[in-house]
Amino acid sequence: VQLQASGGGLVQAGDSLRLSCAASGRTFSIYALGWFRQAPGKEREFVATVSSDGGSTYYADSVKGRFTISRDNTENTVYLRMDSLKPEDTAVYYCAARLGFVRSSQTTYRYWGQGTQVTVSS
User: Fold this and answer.
1) CA neighbours within 13 Å on the CB side: how many for 37?
2) pLDDT along the chain (122 residues), means of 10
3) DSSP 88
4) What is the side-by-side strand order in the sheet with 3-6?
5) Which residues of 71-83 are buried (b: 16+ CB within 10 A; e: fewer)?
6) pLDDT for the residue 29
């Protein structure tokens, strides 16, 4: 599966943003999907993940209550709604796909999108 992330941009603290990740292929619905991010000078970290049917989600503590992951299997797209953005949310955001159950470990994700930049100014 090929993934294409979009929707990043420059926003102010407290604003909202929605990222999208469109996937190619007819088997989109069998993959669990995740969002990860990498801030300047830091390692890439887990943000959120959603199961293949959209019924299960899991979030990093740092975004819990502010970010919402969802998917539309009819549109082959996964979303990340980000509310109450903070400057520390500034990073390149990546979407990724894996077969099987939701996992936070990025090493278990086989397919990756190219990333989209999110910058939050204070």
Assistant:
1) 23
2) 96 98 87 96 97 96 98 95 98 95 92 96 96
3) G
4) 3-6, 17-23, 77-82, 67-72
5) beeeebbbbbebe
6) 87
Alpha carbon distances (Å) from 54 to 18, 49, 71, 114: 17, 9, 6, 23
DSSP tag of 84: S
Q: Write down the pLDDT at residue 28.
A: 87
116 token code pair: 């989209």
List, in order, residues 6 or more apart from 113 with CB less than 8 Å away. Answer: 3, 4, 5, 21, 94, 95, 96
Query: What pLDDT does residue 33 have?
Result: 96
